[in-house]
Amino acid sequence: MIEISNLSMRYGELIALESLDLTIERGEFFAFLGPNAAGKTTTIKLLTGLIEPTSGTARICGYDIRKDPLEAKRRIGYIPDVAEFYGKLTPIEFMAFIAELFQVERAIAKKRTPELMEQFSLLPCGRQRIENLSHGTRQRLAFASALLHEPEVIIVDEPMVGLDPKNARVVKEELKARSKAGVTVFLSTHLLNVAHELADRVGIINRGKLCALGTVEEIRCGVAGGSGQSLEALFLEITGGEEG
């Protein structure tokens, strides 16, 4: 699970995130929505330990990401919107590297690697250098490698970037299946239809502050005249019409 308490991030006078309080339960599929520069990516960077907050705490499965970063990160599978790789490696070599990094037993890694590579249509390019692969193929590799160590928490930033409809469906089905199996999924996306389709709860952030939280129906009830409105209409109402 994810526990966020009074989490804030400032860059000089700029408040990127202000006093965020949020708890996401084990097995919950949570969608984090907001306009550009609302604080979504800042929140993800704080949750994954890529940056340190100005104040507040974030815990992953009970481990403080600042005080126990290794234990917290062991439990995270992180898929950024643009994944970075060692370009000279092949996908097979990169998967082996990830297995070593997360101390996955060799027998388990040997079994999971081809399964994940087949699932994400990576077997045909398994021995090509990553630097020669398309963006969409690299994104599929990011998913496969992030799931290799069976994370308890999956954090995804814009998961559908670069994916064709077939592989987008594979990703959605896999994330939903993992959530139903007890994995916590934190998904940041601009695609409101994806959030509506997959998420148990939705959080809407704007200008660094959490503006709405709950199921889509709960958010409808919290917006004047919200009954029957689409998530897109609710989003625009809550954020003042700012673009996602």
Blueprint of the fold:
Layout: E1 2-11, E2 14-24, E3 29-33, H1 40-47, E4 55-60, E5 63-64, H2 69-74, E6 76-79, H3 91-101, H4 106-119, H5 135-147, E7 153-157, H6 165-180, E8 184-188, H7 192-198, E9 201-206, E10 209-214, H8 216-222, H9 231-238
Parallel strand pairs: 3-8, 3-9, 6-7, 7-8
Antiparallel strand pairs: 1-2, 1-4, 4-5, 9-10
Helix pairs in contact: 3-5, 4-5
Summarize the structure.
This protein is an alpha/beta fold and 244 residues long.
Describe the fold and architecture.
The structure is a single chain. The protein is α/β, with parallel strands linked by helices. It has two domains: 1-75 and 153-244, 3-Layer(aba) Sandwich (Rossmann fold), CATH 3.40.50; 85-150. It is 37% helix and 25% strand. It has nine helices and ten strands. The strands form two sheets. The protein has a six-stranded mixed beta sheet, sandwiched between helices. It has a four-stranded antiparallel beta sheet with strand order 2-1-4-5. Helix 3 (91-101) packs parallel to helix 5 (135-147) and helix 4 (106-119) runs antiparallel to helix 5 (135-147). The longest helix has 16 residues, at 165-180. The radius of gyration is 18 Å and the shape is globular. It starts with a strand and ends in a 6-residue tail after the last helix.
